[in-house]
């Protein structure tokens, strides 16, 4: 029997999750075959303003709730996500085009960050400092910040919200989510799951979590709204610059996780079996539409020919097609515009002296399917320096490790990086202060696929923000230095005297 129409499956999932879609002019299409899933209404300017006002009201109540109690809401959210895992994963595949295991993995990321945030709710530690004044006590405390706007991209339509929301909520902040206009249904489904957690929680304020649907105008309105002290934005560098300037103009905070042009340095000592597997996943996973996708392979001259031949063989056997098929490893690009960018980038690289090793063609049929490309480049040209959100792997050669590190760091972006080597000195040099300049640096593992325990983000055009683990929670709070005088006298600091 032929598979059920994609739109029918999506609507059935939404119905099971209790999502009612308000009809409107925004056409939501699936990258699986380009068909329309539904047309939904976008948020009006009035609704955007109301969302900010309602978030302020929620903040007034939520910041008074003890942090461990706030953590209980996130624990319940994790439980509800576990219950809805299969439906959400299937919807991610339908709306974003991810293969089934990646869709499931994204929902697992949401669950993992909930688990992390629950523990964090009892560890929002401050400091105590000795005072130079007798009978005084000094301490540093982290306080809730206020409403947090989350602007997410299509390629991780739900996980990025969870990375931000789980942390923001335990820190005492309401959230307003503006998902990509290409993937709004997953956001509405996640909001329905959140509503279940709130119902079980019982005493949370209204409007603690809100979703606004629309395009760049919605994001711009949130960025310019002084009632929102923090805007966390994930997407292109161009978008991030616009958000940063708007937020900075009102002296707010922006947490930016933007583009990546990630490299792997492959030493002549590397385990090639391990490296080929890492390269394949990192370069073609999510059809090259991850900010951590491997885009530049900087390989030692001594093993370059052997590695390229092995990669070509691996690429030629990649199962490409409908991401719902369990055997598929490469699904579609998000839309036709992305496929046009893919083809234009390949043409530009060839014009700049590149040799197309394999792939690069569009596949027949509905949906924006392509065959991932490998291009050997003589130099790190303009095409290589630019991040194209598609499965294009540029291969460059090196002889000295110092030159490879310099080549890796020469691009504007600074998100993720890695080296494959069996030599300790090469690994440690790569990880040193004069090694990789990226926010993520790995040894014998690819650049793609971060765990939630570490802070995620990068430098330079990647934006400098950090999300998820480690002490990234501090971005969602305000730091306050407190001094208590219990002496009965009033000595001043630095020996200043002011006697009346």
Describe the structure.
- With 500 residues, the chain is of the alpha/beta class.
- Helices cover 39% and strands 20% of the residues.
- It contains 15 helices and 21 strands.
- It has helices spanning 6-16, 45-62, 67-83, 85-96, 100-120, 159-170, 184-201, 216-223, 237-249, 272-284, 301-316, 336-351, 382-385, 401-409, 424-431, and strands at 23-29, 36-40, 127-129, 136-144, 148-151, 175-178, 209-211, 230-234, 253-257, 262-266, 294-300, 355-358, 373-376, 392-398, 413-414, 416-420, 440-443, 455-456, 459-460, 467-468, 477-485.
- The strands form six sheets. A seven-stranded mixed sheet has the order 12-13-14-11-10-16-17, with helices on both faces.
- Strand 5 (148-151), helix 6 and strand 6 (175-178) form a beta-alpha-beta unit.
- The chain is globular, with a radius of gyration of 24 Å.
- The termini are far apart.
Helix count from the secondary structure assignment? 15
Beta strands, count: 21
Q: Helix amount, in percent?
A: 25-40%
State the end-to-end CA separation.
93 Å
Overall 3D shape? globular
Q: How does the helix and strand content classify structurally? A: alpha/beta
Sheet with the most strands: spatial strand order: 12-13-14-11-10-16-17
Mean pLDDT score, rounded?
96
Strand content: 15-25%
Q: Main sheet, how many strands, which sense, barrel? A: 7 strands, mixed
Oligomer: single chain
Radius of gyration: 24 Å
Stretches with pLDDT under 50, minimum 5 residues? none
């Amino acid at each position: 029997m032929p598979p059920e129409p994609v739109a029918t499956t999506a609507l059935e999932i939404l119905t099971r999750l209790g999502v009612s879609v308000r009809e409107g002019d925004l056409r939501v299409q699936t990258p699986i075959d380009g068909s329309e899933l539904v047309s939904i209404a976008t948020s009006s300017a009035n609704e955007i303003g109301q969302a900010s006002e309602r978030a302020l009201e929620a903040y007034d109540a939520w910041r008074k709730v003890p942090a461990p109690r706030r953590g209980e809401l996130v624990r319940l959210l994790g439980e509800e996500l576990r219950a809805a895992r299969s439906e959400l994963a299937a919807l991610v595949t339908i709306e974003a085009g991810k293969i089934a295991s990646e869709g499931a993995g994204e929902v697992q990321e949401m669950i993992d960050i909930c688990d992390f945030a629950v523990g964090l709710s009892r560890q929002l530690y401050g400091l105590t400092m000795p005072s130079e004044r007798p009978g005084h006590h000094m301490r540093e405390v982290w306080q809730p910040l206020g409403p947090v706007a989350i602007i997410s991209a299509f390629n991780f339509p739900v996980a990025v919200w969870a990375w931000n929301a789980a942390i923001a909520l335990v820190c005492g902040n309401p959230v307003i989510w503006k998902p990509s206009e290409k993937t709004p249904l997953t956001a509405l489904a996640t909001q329905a799951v959140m509503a279940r957690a709130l119902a079980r929680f019982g005493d949370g304020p209204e409007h603690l979590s809100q979703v606004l649907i629309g395009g760049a105008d919605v994001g711009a309105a949130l960025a310019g709204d002084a009632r929102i002290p923090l805007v966390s934005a994930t997407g292109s560098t161009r978008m991030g610059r616009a958000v940063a300037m708007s937020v900075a103009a009102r002296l707010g905070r922006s947490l930016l996780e933007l583009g990546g042009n990630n490299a792997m340095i492959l030493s002549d000592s590397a385990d090639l079996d391990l490296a080929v597997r890492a390269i394949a996943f990192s370069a073609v996973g999510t059809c090259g539409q991850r900010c951590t996708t491997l885009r530049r392979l900087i390989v030692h001259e001594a093993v370059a020919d052997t590695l390229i031949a092995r990669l070509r063989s691996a690429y030629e056997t990649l199962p490409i097609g409908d991401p719902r098929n369990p055997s598929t490893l490469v699904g579609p690009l998000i839309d036709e515009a992305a496929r046009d960018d893919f083809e234009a980038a390949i043409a530009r690289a060839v014009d700049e002296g590149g040799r197309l090793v394999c792939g690069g063609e569009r596949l027949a049929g509905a949906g924006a399917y392509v065959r991932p490309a490998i291009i050997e480049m003589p130099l790190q040209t303009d095409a290589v320096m630019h991040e194209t959100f598609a499965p294009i792997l540029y291969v460059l050669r090196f002889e000295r490790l110092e030159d490879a590190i310099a080549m890796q760091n020469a691009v504007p972006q600074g998100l993720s990086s890695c080296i494959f080597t069996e030599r300790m000195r090469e690994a440690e040099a790569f990880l040193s202060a004069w090694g990789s300049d990226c926010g993520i640096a790995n040894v014998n593992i690819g650049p793609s696929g971060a765990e939630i325990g570490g802070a995620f983000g990068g430098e330079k055009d990647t934006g400098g923000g950090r999300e998820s683990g480690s002490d990234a929670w501090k971005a969602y709070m305000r730091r306050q230095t407190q001094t208590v005088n219990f002496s009965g006298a009033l000595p001043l600091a630095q020996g200043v005297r002011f006697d009346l």
